[in-house]
Amino acid sequence: MGYPNSGTLFKNDKKTTDKHPDLNGSAEVNGVKFYVSAWLKEGKNSGKKFYSLSFKEAEQKEEDRSQVVPEKENDKTDDMPW
Fold first, then answer.
1. What are phi and psi of 59, to 5 degrees?
2. Is the CB of residue 23 less than 8 Å from the CB of residue 9?
3. Any domain includes 51
4. 76 lies in some domain
5. Is residue 47 part of a domain?
6. Buried b (16+ CB within 10 A) or exposed e, 27-62
7. pLDDT digits over 65-74, tens only?
8. Which one of 7, 18, 25, 58 is at 20 to 30 Å from 51 when CA atoms are compared?
């Protein structure tokens, strides 16, 4: 990672559905590392484009993955590339 309280986003070359983020990356805020996902959206009334962001603590994600059991064998609930 770079500087404190900063991060980077990259184009998601593995995007195969609209649910996958357009951009993904990481950031560090107050010493806490986060995974960042961004979706390019358009305002319903204004028509203006904007990014919707999602943040997930890096350590939290690893803990969550060890406790998640998919309902079906082909259930892909976590398509994030990291």
1. -70, -40
2. yes
3. yes
4. no
5. yes
6. bbeeeeebbbbbbeeeeeeeeeeeeeeeeeeeeeee
7. 455 444 444 4
8. 58
What would the mean pLDDT of 17-27 be, rounded to a whole number?
Answer: 96
Give the position of tokens 């603590």.
57
What angle (nearest 5°) sits at the alpha carbon of residue 17, between those of residues 58 and 8? 35
Which structural domain, as residue segments, surrounds residue 41? 6-67
Rounded Cα distance, 7 and 55, in Å: 11
Q: How many domains does the chain have?
A: 1
Residue 21 placed within a domain: yes
Mean pLDDT of 31-52: 96
Q: Is a pLDDT exceeding 90 seen at residue 82?
A: no
Both tokens of 9, joined, read 């986003």
Q: What are phi and psi of 56, to 5 degrees?
A: -140, 125
Q: Is the pLDDT of residue 18 over 50?
A: yes
